[in-house]
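Note to self: user wants both folds in one dump. Writing first protein now.
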Amino acid sequence: MAKKTVKFVCQNCGYESPKWMGKCPQCSQWNQMVEEAETPKRRGFFLHPEPGNETKAAPITSIESKEEKRTKVDFGELNRVLGGGIVAGSLVLIGGDPGIGKSTLLLQVSSQLAKHGLNVLYISGEESAKQTKLRADRLNIHTDHLYVLPETDLSVIQQAIDELNPGFVVIDSIQTIYHPEIQSAPGSVSQVRETTAQLMRTAKTKNVAIFIVGHVTKEGSIAGPRVLEHMVDTVLYFEGERHNAYRILRAVKNRFGSTNEIAILEMKESGLEEVQNPSEIFLEERTKGAAGSTVVASIEGTRPVLVEIQALLAPTFFNMPRRMASGIDYNRVTLIMAVLEKRAGLLIQNQDAYLKVAGGLKVDEPAVDLAVAVSVASSFRDKPTNADDCIIGEVGLTGEVRRVSRIEQRVQEAAKLGFRRAIIPKNNMGGWTPPKEIQVIGVSTIQEALEAALGG
């Protein structure tokens, strides 16, 4: 009898070792090495096999390019995030915190596709068929083209896909599916890698769109090996607070469209509903005439979104003042506060500082720098900002205000929502015509911006 060989695999990054180690040498995580049985290497597969034809190198000019066939759903926001609809033969990974609404979203999308005459197969590895039916009843889903299969064995799932030949498949979730030829437990690195590879082959060979749900770790990334995100065509993150009604669907990878596109959805008793104008949602509860509040036009994917930046400064009682930021990078906040102290003469080293992006949105582009600086200065001086101002610009370490991209779209979005003034970098002033209903003020330094926004 052949000796059984084993290996130890890191459940965080997929690193393999012939012996157990307490700390993974690749990702530096502790207690992540799990024993798994060695499986024989199998021959790879072609993603687009054609019987009788061998794959050969060809000049790129001789390859025929054509538009991918897309299927649109009733959620216009989801169509935009995916680049114009669901591409046939694509493999889409969607991740999010437990209870955020991933299963609800995909069940609603499945229903919309089924109503258009497509056969949809919903694989539930975490719930029974009755539990899925209860959710469908709550969402008022009643269609004969939606099939539910509570199964975790990949071979049974593959057989069901072959028999039904659906146009759309949902796997909920990938961590519960296991390949019968792999000895390790479901959810392990080997299982996730092999099952995803098999599903990718099915999607490409049968030209069927497959959505797979992935669990996330406490750090917010997809659980399992990083190769999982590299294998799929699109990666979507479903974000939001569980106690907040609004959800953000963000594309972080998309081979068929733009990345960093976002869709705003609202969770209601009847399911998720799309928000047509997210800027109004983020600004509807804004208090006018409040110190420490500014509005910035941030670009999310291909469209501008107006969000409110809030800052609160208070004298500290500690040797080291506290700095906290929600929805914006902490390092960016500390950098801007250092620039304010050095270049604008604000003595804020003895102040606790708390910054927040209202509405739960996360912004990470440089164009929000100037709005953060004005918010901090407004709270420190206890001087309210003008409620009709929109502030846009990147701040450099020498106190200069640098140009940002797509300024015309940002200013037009501000004008559309009734803002009367836009404070922007002076280098962005030329080459375009601002709307007549908004006054555009160009500034070149952070001192000029504070003068324009706060009067000094």
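First done. Writing the second protein, which came from a different request thread.
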Amino acid sequence: MITIQRLLTALTGVLLCFATLGAQAQDRDITYNSHVAQIINENCVVCHREGGIGPMQFESYDQVRPWAPLIQMRVANREMPPYAYDQHIGIQELEGDWRLAQEEIDTIVEWVNQGSPLGATDIIPPAVDLPNTDAWNFTASLGEPDLIVPSVPMDIPANGNDLWSKHFVESGLEQDRCIKAVQVKPRGDAKAVVHHANSDVWVPNEEGEYEDYGQLTEYAMGKWGELVPDGVCRTLPAGSRVRWSIHMYPGGVGATARGQEVKDNVVEIGLWFHDEDYAETEQPYKQDLRSYGMREGYENGHLIVPPHGFTMTQGFHSFDHPVRLDSFQPHGHLRMNAASLEIFYPETGRTEQISQISNWSATWHHSHIYSSDAAPLLPTGAVLVIKQWYDNSADNPNNPDPDQWVYGGSRTGDEMSHAWIAVTHLDDEGYDRLLAERKERSERSVAGND
């Protein structure tokens, strides 16, 4: 009994401590100039500015203040910035992670609760350094692309049915190169119109005929780009051709859709390469990007989402050698609303949660790029378990018509069930080495030596 009383006393003290800290946060005067402007400038203005894709501008207090209650709601619900990835489930160490820290969210929420004050006028918020709206996303860290592969120009009407363009473009490469980063960029006025822009690589065989070599990259609306980890190589071969497969939706999809005709739209692939001798000097492992399908949950071989109904699909994939998962990007259309990635280990019967996206949206496709120190390492025979959920009810804000039967297909109004996953293919030696390095870093961290 004495032990229980001591535990209760300790717990009460901890709760009182947290309550005191919360009260102190609420008692603090939070203003735009001193606290909020920097958060908005660093996380929101990149889209919400003149010429940006955001529907309103947040470049000054006068522009932000009328939208403060909406900003509070979207930020508190983690709907903005638009990076849907569940907190506290699976791997959280991601490259290009747009999510706000909880402290930043709390600051904005309390600022609005206090009436969204401007604050002292002699305090000047830090100026925001914004790239050009048409700039490449990796220019600041990697410079301009080493190679740009453009599509052919396309005219997209203001309305009508889905359109597709499939064509080849020469890469112009004279030697094999290892890719460091890649981004697909529609023109600014077509970002809401280009539904996806996939590209695969074709190379000549011994007879001089071109055949499919593999996926170069994938783009879907809102995607930031892909970073390839050090020590691996995703190859673009010499003499290769790039085969474009571009899906366009006239008028556009989502809040940024302009509903206007787009003339001579060109979609571009920007590629950043490692040094020419990288493959020879580093002896990197091979990385590839592939589509992994989910067919469990199909009805008689078909993906079907009934009117006002729900569907879940799942797929299972394994490898005959060790691998590392470098990124995970679920793909679907307007009824899809959630996805997850797990790993099942047959030898132990254990299932490990890797990623969960519970508020997925077709207007913001993200390739969730795992930090190389945290990316999942799979032994031979481990099983990827990929799941996606679909909501054809009126409660789904992206649903254009809950009365429709929805089937699997390529149109925007159809549905798809696959995920794009970048995989580094290891051997036993490389797998054991990476495990040992992680164990060593973990032990140093526990010992306080990092």
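Dump finished. Worth passing along: The first strand starts at residue 94 and ends at 95.
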